[in-house]
Amino acid sequence: MPEVMFAGPDGRLEGRYHHAKERGAPLALVLHPHPLHGGTMNNRVTYTMYQVFQRLGFSVMRFNFRGVGRSQGKYDGGMGEINDAAAALDWMQALNPGHGGLWISGYSFGAFVGMQLLMRRPEVSGWISVAPPAAHYDFGFLAPCPCGGLMIHGDADELVPEASVRKLVDKLNTQKGVSVDYRIFAGADHVFAHHADAIGAAVESYVSGEIARKHMALAAD
């Protein structure tokens, strides 16, 4: 997983990028938890999701938001971090013309940034949100949500009550053409200390299933 440095809106950003061997492979961007609470691209859940996309044949990147690790700049309350993520997508897309689809995957604060980015980039074809902070941020901007995805939460989350995420999922599932696969992990708190492997398995099954479904739909046309 080669280290990369790329231009962000507030200085250079540090990332890890895996380039798929197959031409036209899909792309995935993985976003880490809150920078002010120890979140980095090496977070266990973030790294697990990165590995899953790599196994599935994606070109995949995880990176440090501004002010984290070797990334320049300083924390910007969310808006600057959304722009960082957009710069990471631009970098990957420039390197991969003719790619086979684009996924955004985020954990906690990264899930919020990922969903914001989803609304700004119509080319996104799928998303993963792990422990989205629905009790702390307004997700009302997902109206309408452009596509379905996978949402994962723990029923013992002490920071984000599961009921707040269920309310968000129910709201999204009322939207036309949107289907959110919501998976609740029993006994999991916000840090998923003993559930990283289970998250990896859930992400792998969901993403591989969605790719297979889209291939079948194309074959039927």
From TrEMBL:
Q: Which residues form the Xaa-Pro dipeptidyl-peptidase-like domain?
A: 23-138
Q: Where are the transmembrane segments?
A: none
The residue ranges of the Peptidase S9 prolyl oligopeptidase catalytic domain are 150-198
Any Pfam family = Peptidase_S15
Q: What is this protein called?
A: Alpha/beta hydrolase
Q: Name one GO molecular function term.
A: hydrolase activity
What is the top-level taxon of the source organism? Bacteria
PANTHER family the UniProt entry points to? AB HYDROLASE-1 DOMAIN-CONTAINING PROTEIN, ALPHA/BETA-HYDROLASES SUPERFAMILY PROTEIN
Keywords, sorted A to Z: Hydrolase
Q: Which SUPFAM superfamilies does this entry report, sorted A to Z?
A: alpha/beta-Hydrolases
